[in-house]
């Protein structure tokens, strides 16, 4: 079926906003997406009608607990988890990763080894680096291949030793857009006896996650990257997290997953989280899927991936026509399925911020900089203080918006080159 782009766009109020009569083009999506009306309504409804803390016997506290339970169940469906007990919900990916790293640190000792990649967002690097510093662990660095733009299995295998306790990987890069073969990488790490912690923040808006199939031990994502509120989610394999002793208040619950969720939960945001998952399910229903919520989510990704890939290739083809412009990531049309629709580039002699500032004036929303892909820019030799221009597509973007963005990129670069000549 054709992707129902107009139906999708009608669900997002922000897409119809203007500034002094000028339309907005949202291509800042890797840093955070817009939300459907249903998500905002769910947050508001919770605050207005079920605003209470948990653990009481009156109506609002009982309803608040149901919201929390529903959010865990929704994320279990979204990630393919075996149980809502495996779903830990918290402030954001980075905070949760710091928390989980300290908890896992209780199982490690000086001389143990952890493997970090040169491809990860800093949120899946700094927590482990600082843990290694605290505990005198050995850090081994895993570069990405600059031809495939992915982490190669042989490179990981070469780093593993009998002392490796954890491998931190990313599913997809927030700079290059490349998707790693997480299932194969996880299998190699697990065979060596290491735990695997996967950052799926950039992949979650663009592909179906099946934690059972991946075989990893932990997977983290952020709701605000897939049309939800600002919060993070960690999935932990039940037998692994059940054996862990997190840092927590002495009198707080020891149950799963509560013992990993510090303080009062963000109940109103959990309501929005369920609504975001149900948005995907609704898209699957519109595409003809009548099965379970998980089946509907899978169908939603099936049609959105095909749609996003077309827009991505249009963008890559248009950028590739500009002399002196380098795309840092996969550009081969035959491999478009091996990347998410995040495209980053640099232009000879022009700082990325200069391009982005001019395009922002035209109400085309983009980012420049390293975007917390600190290790990537250093491996590629890109000045960290400059970084890249990053264009990130979501499935509510249109072909017309990509055409207008490409026209702007061509014009802005030509103008800046003329000013420098």
TrEMBL record:
Signal peptide bounds: none
GO terms, molecular function: transaminase activity
UniProt cross-references to Pfam families, sorted A to Z: Aminotran_5 (PF00266)
NCBIfam families, A to Z: am_tr_V_VC1184
Annotated InterPro entries: Aminotrans_V_dom, Cys_dSase-rel, PyrdxlP-dep_Trfase, PyrdxlP-dep_Trfase_major, PyrdxlP-dep_Trfase_small
Domain Aminotransferase class V: start-end pairs: 25-403
Species in which this protein is naturally found: Mesorhizobium prunaredense
Protein name: Aminotransferase
Keywords: Aminotransferase, Pyridoxal phosphate, Transferase
